[in-house]
Amino acid sequence: MWKLMGVTILTGSGLWLGLQAAGQLARRVRAIESWQCALLLLEGEMSFRLPDLPQLLEEVGRRAPDPAGMALSAAAQGFAKLGEVPFSEIWAGALAERRDALEGEELELLYRLGTILGRCGWEEQRAAAERTRLALERGAARLREELNRKGRAYGVTGLSLGAFLSILLL
């Protein structure tokens, strides 16, 4: 009876580990999609309303899904320190606070966007936001494909590992 419970726990734990790996990819895709939505809102506001940057970030931060919405709101609140710290550092701090599942290339794209926002004309800023959004879209498509391909494989590998350990310890 105890052996059967141990086998079940080990096998289930392996499956859980595999599903966690697939879940991490899915969280990363959702985080990228939230930034895509936020950048689309940012582009629209820049194209039609032209508010000042703190107001723009606050407005888009309220409307955008998290984690992007929270990061934009944090960047808008950071404008209180603007004389002491350059905006690119405020932006980087807001991204670091709410980076969630974002990694490497996605973070680098967003950091680069922060170096452009507030430094040039509205049209250049809108174009930079658009380029960033399109690059994130390509990255999200690549990750979705990877998730479809590897998602089940992670679960099966984890289950196999748990079963192997169970057999080995019996």
Describe the structure in your own words.
The structure is a single chain. This protein is an all-alpha fold and 170 residues long. It has a domain at 31-142. It is built from six helices and no strands. α1 (2-48) packs across α2 (53-63), α1 (2-48) runs antiparallel to α6 (122-169) and α3 (68-77) packs antiparallel against α4. The protein starts with a helix and ends with a helix.
Number of strands: 0
Task: Report the portion of residues in β strands.
Answer: under 5%
Helix tally equals 6
pLDDT averaged over residues: 82
Q: pLDDT below 50 for ≥5 consecutive residues: which ranges?
A: none
What is the gist of this entry?
The chain is mostly helical. It has helices spanning 2-48, 53-63, 68-77, 87-97, 104-116, 122-169.
Please supply descriptive tags for the structure shown above.
170 residues; mainly alpha; 6 helices
